[in-house]
Design goal:
The chain is α/β, with parallel strands linked by helices. It has four helices and five strands, in the order H-E-E-H-E-E-H-H-E. Among the domains are: 77 residues, Outer membrane lipoprotein wza fold like, CATH 3.10.560; 63 residues, AF1531-like domain (DNA polymerase, domain 1, Orthogonal Bundle). The strands form two sheets. A three-stranded mixed sheet has the order 2-1-3, with helices on one face. Strand 1 and strand 2 form a beta hairpin. Pfam families: HHH_3, SLBB. Keywords: Membrane, Transmembrane, Transmembrane helix. One of its GO terms (cellular component) is type II protein secretion system complex.
């Protein structure tokens, strides 16, 4: 009887030891497997985005140079470039000054010029169409005899197609007209004709 009990004790102890070893081993492998299969959380990455540039509208710079067309009773008519803020008197000086027969009462020499402005200096006895400013500027309906075509002369009372062709032919042969009075050099245009035309023409 005692032998049987001793055998059972030995076997029970062996069985418990084996069971403990099995459980411990199983737990170890189970924990290792769980840890190895556990997904690794992505680290949060904070990206610093560059600040957006705010579009700013640049103010257009004012033109420092103005273009002015000087015509009429001046020594050198033409297009001149002046500094912003210049007055009519300064531009007239650039054009060589006024002719002796210029009518200065019809122009305002103290007025400031603007870009692409035309200043017309009338001759004595010449009537200039009235304008909002007092610079002697002619209205846009005036026909420039130095650049007009036959069609342009259609709006001029007293100049028909044939006379227009004569004016253009004279201009092409002798160069641009320096003043309206030069029209009297064209065949068919005299002093009386010029008096009726001068309010419709310019140079």
């Amino acid at each position: 009887m005692e032998t049987i009990l001793n055998y059972l004790k030995k076997n029970i102890l062996s069985s418990l030891v084996i069971l403990i070893v099995v459980v411990a081993t199983s737990g170890y492998f189970l924990m290792h497997k769980t840890a190895s299969t556990q997904p690794v959380k992505n680290e949060l990455r904070t990206e610093i985005k560059p600040a957006k540039k705010v579009a700013t509208k640049e103010k257009p710079a004012k033109a420092n140079v103005l273009v002015v067309d000087i015509q009429g009773a001046v020594k050198k008519s033409g297009v001149y470039r002046v500094k912003n803020g210049a007055i009519v008197q300064e531009v007239l000086q650039m054009a060589g000054g006024l002719n002796s027969n210029a009518d200065t009462k019809q122009i305002n020499q103290a007025q400031r010029v603007t870009d692409q402005m035309q200043v017309y200096v009338p001759y004595q006895g010449e009537k200039v169409a009235s304008t909002s400013n007092k610079t002697g500027n002619k209205e846009s309906k005036l026909v420039n005899i130095n650049s007009a075509t036959v069609d342009d002369f259609k709006d001029v009372t007293g100049i028909g197609p044939k006379k227009a062709e004569k004016i253009i032919a004279f201009r092409e042969k002798n160069g641009n007209f320096k003043e309206l009075h030069d029209l009297t050099k064209v065949s068919g245009i005299g002093e009386k004709s010029l008096d009726t035309l001068k309010d419709q023409l310019t140079v």
